[in-house]
Amino acid sequence: MRILVTGGLGAVGRPLVGELRARGHEVWIADRGHHHDPHYIRMDVSEYRQVERALSAAPFELVYHLAAEFGRWNGEDYYETMWRTNVIGTKHIIRLQERLGFRMVFASSSEVYGDYRGVMTEDVLERVPIRQMNDYAISKWVNELQILNSAQACGTQTVRVRLFNTYGPGEYYAPYRSVICRWVYHALHDQPYVVYTAHRRTSTYIDDAVRALANIADRFRPGEVYNIASNCLHDMRTASDIILRLLGKDDSLVEYRDVEPQTTLEKVVDASKAERDLEMRTTVDLEEGIARTIAWQREVYGVR
After folding, report:
1. What is the number of alpha carbons within 13 Å of residue 69 lying toward its C-beta?
2. Which residues pair with 202 in a beta bridge?
3. Tens digits of per-residue pLDDT, 99-118?
4. Residues 6+ apart with CB under 8 A from 300
5. Can you name the residues that pair with 136 across neighbouring β-strands?
6. Which of 102, 210, 287, 299 has a CA between 20 and 30 Å from the CA of residue 58?
7. Does residue 298 carry a pLDDT above 90?
8. Strand, coil or helix: what is 15?
9. CA-CA distance, 16 to 8, in Å (whole number)?
10. Alpha-carbon span 174 to 183, nearest angstrom
């Protein structure tokens, strides 16, 4: 199958490209920078001409649309870029999907569940009024509505996936990256960080998420939506304690607070649909996943 992955150089996109190619697919990559891959197309998703050029480069059968501005605080501090990329950019992709007829897998986020306090099943947003708690979350729900409207009006075929706290090797540090990435980096470099003790998350190791995502190519069900999540539900102090223990450090640089504003308190998820349809499995638990992340960061940043 000929597949395009937007955001194909990102923390999820890069390993997904590798997994799809290992399965024999012809995979093209679109991202914002220059790159040496022979099937690479430079593209800023917020620029229609560039998107049109990329999607016209070959007759793609499937597009994994991962390109996005990531993270709630990133979406607050750089909201102009976030809204252009996530909402205008996704609309560009949809308009070309309507014209060219390719199928799409869209990467949404667990953040769309907002202030919901129960078990997060995929139908929650159809049944319960939800308040998304930050601009990033709002943008991802807008994307899902854009997709649903296009499917109804134009017959486009898309699978939506809601990723739950995906982490692991390949995610380079930045202040707006995932919490495990940031905490590992700060602990390695003896820098302070904050732990919000009232929150719980379901953290999903990158390899487990990528295998489930790649399975969609062969098990595509138009209109379906999946929670891509592990069974690793934990409070945030537990994750921090694992990092510190594996590094042989104490918590003298950790500040403990209760609740972080503008984000979901608990992410308790039901991923049974992905387990059934996509063979979503937890093969790497939280401790092993953090150990692998630490080893990767040690190598990348030269910290021993």
Report:
1. 25
2. 233
3. 999 999 999 999 999 999 99
4. 172
5. none
6. 210
7. yes
8. helix
9. 8
10. 11
Q: How many independent structural domains does the chain possess?
A: 1
Residue 143 burial (CB < 10 Å; 0-12/13-18/19+)? buried
Tokens of residue 245, six digits: 């223990």
Token output for 21? 């190619």
Distance between CA atoms of 301 and 149, rounded to whole angstroms? 45
Range of the domain at 295: 2-236+241-301
Burial (CB count <10 Å: 0-12, 13-18, 19+), residue 277: middle
Give the residue carrying structure tokens 């947003």. Answer: 125
CATH code of the domain containing 232 = 3.40.50.720
Q: How far apart are CA 122 and CA 231, in angstroms?
A: 16
pLDDT in tens, 241-264: 999 999 999 999 999 999 998 888
The tokens 């907002």 sit on which residue?
114
CA 256 to chain centre: 26
What dihedral do alpha carbons 150, 99, 104, 23 form, nearest 10°? Answer: 170
